[in-house]
Design a protein that fits this description.
heterodimer, A: mainly beta, seven-stranded mixed sheet, 0% helix, 52% strand, B: mainly beta, six-stranded mixed sheet, four-stranded antiparallel sheet, globular
Chain lengths: 115, 113
């Protein structure tokens, strides 16, 4: 099976722009979650989708949003970019049926730089 | 709020040695799961080992084992016969619900030849 695929790998944007990141989960996985990784804040949970519905959300401003399509692919969007949004954005997938015990499979991330 | 603390920002050992990474956590839940994830330079997080809180037996995966002390809320990772490929960032994590992992700040582990 192919792993979790995130595109693009690298992205450079300027302040005020918006950006869309894509994540294709492992075939058959219905849950996709997103994490932000920065040197200062570490790894923080953004949100999780299961069967096109957001099940859980982290403590991020409304500029961060996401969605999931019927084929389980997910996108996250950040509007009005700020310098502090520069980070590695990681996506993870899992079957999604067992909320607490499932192994998450991560992609290699999208490195976003905001100038 | 649930928190995860890794008190060792960096560690370095020689190849073939045994190393233990520390992790403590705070939760009011009684049933939960704890994880150790590895992040090599490729950036992809890889699950190393998983522990179910209701199981008293410590989890093991080949050279990796944990020392789970539920009362002390401690969850350390032991790597035996360390290899160069074990060089990575290691994150302790606690699951809070619906794939919402709460991560520690990480320990950068270097295995020297």
């Amino acid at each position: 099976k192919a792993g979790v695929t995130q595109t693009p790998r690298y992205l450079i944007k300027t302040r005020g722009q918006q950006v869309t990141l894509s994540c294709s989960p492992i075939s058959g996985h219905r849950s996709v979650s997103w994490y932000q990784q920065t040197p200062g804040q570490g790894l923080q949970f953004l949100f999780e989708y299961f069967s096109e519905t957001q099940r859980n959300k982290g403590n991020f401003p409304g500029r961060f949003s996401g969605r999931q399509f019927s084929n389980s692919r997910s996108e996250m969007n950040v509007s009005t970019l700020e310098l502090g949004d520069s980070a590695l954005y990681l996506c993870a997938s899992s079957p999604g049926q067992f909320l607490f015990s499932e192994k998450l499979f991560f992609g290699s991330g999208t490195q976003l730089s905001v100038l | 709020a649930q928190t995860v603390t890794q008190s060792q920002p960096e560690m370095s050992v020689q190849e073939a040695e045994t190393v233990t990474l520390s992790c403590t956590y705070d939760t009011s839940e009684n049933n939960y799961y704890l994880f150790w994830y590895k992040q090599p330079p490729s950036r992809q997080m890889i699950l190393v080992i998983r522990q179910e809180a209701y199981k008293q037996q410590n989890a093991t995966e080949n050279r990796f084992s944990v020392n789970f002390q539920k009362a002390a809320k401690s969850f350390s990772l032991k790597i035996s016969d360390s290899q160069l490929g074990d060089t990575a960032m290691y994150f302790c994590a606690f699951i809070q619900g619906a794939q919402k992992l709460v991560f520690g700040q990480g320990t950068r582990l270097t295995i020297n030849p």
